[in-house]
Sequence to fold (399 residues):
Amino acid sequence: MREIRAHVDPAFLAVLPADQIRTVLKTYVGPNGPLVPARFEGGVSETRAYAIALNPARQMWRVVLSVSPVEPFLITQLYFAPVSTPIGPANPPRRWSDLADAIDALAPRTSFAAAELTEAGPIWLSRLYGDKQRAIASAFKLYVLGELVRQVASGEAAWQESLAVQDSLRSLPNGDMRLLPTGLELPIQYFAERMIAGSDNTATDHLIARLGRPRVQAEFAGQGHSRPEQNLPLLMTREWFAIRMRLRDTQIERYLAADAGKRLRILADTVDPLAAQLSETEPWPGPRFLDRIEWFAGAADLVRAQHWLWRNSDGPDGAPVRDALSLNCGACWHPDTWRYIGYKGGYETGAMSNTWLLQRQDGRWFSFAAIINDTRREIDANGLWLLQTAAERLLATTV
Fold:
């Protein structure tokens, strides 16, 4: 007991006392051990190690360990829990064409693409309306990450560069960075991880402001987007919330009828002041204007974005990219098949997008993305998740 107290942060012990930690380790974790790490989520740093571990029966457990960043490096987070492989559909599609048909039946507007990633480019395994522009919600943050990668590579930014929290860049959830004190400085890498793993909107807007809106806009084309003009001007998340929640239909139509330059003026003069007044308790208007005020891409665009990130994250300087993408794996498929799982999703009422970056145990890399939109009602999110597990099974057996 004394040794536990010597290594665990008092704040942690206030929630889970030393005697309970001992009981958990002895009666819950011990009988299921030994647990052997099989895949790390988010990489391993001096202060954290998140892993998918396997017990002797090859069952998956998630192990989370964090320590304080200063001596005596006390444990601030310790977590063990069994993890189940995602369940697929009862009668999974056995061919890519059947899977595409099943996804197409989920919603009025769909897009799907799957590819093996090679140095020469994606080798397409399946595409359904691959370049048709659909609302992708938070998946657009892949392009913000891409521009950050470019600027780190060129020396214009650095992963450990400090960025201060600003009131003018706070947004609504997802994410908790909106609650941080003004002026608090954190590394850009932390903002990137929160943007991808937690889909933190405040982190996203801080990065767009730091990198430059025009530069991030250009990154859509840089990462192979088929119609980058659909995202001009690039909306910050706080602007998107303000337009959808506060503007009248006539104001939105006026914005949509304007050219990119005039839209920027409307954002600065009308939308930004409204964004500062938004409350989390305000009602969401549903899928109203979903197909016109959003971020847009096709599933093939998202696969090309993942391909670009894969190509530009090979090596120590790119490691934070793969760490950020793997912190939230989306679906925990078994490490016997998958050495690496990277994920970014997006959701709002009537729209869902999911895209994965996967490395199989034989070393081959794959990506697939799926998007469903419905401007009149909520989408079948569970149906999409089931079919994405069917896509993973097809990739697992691709020869």
Q: What stands out?
A: The chain has a mean pLDDT of 96. The first helix runs from residue 2 to 7. DSSP finds 14 helices and 13 strands in the chain.
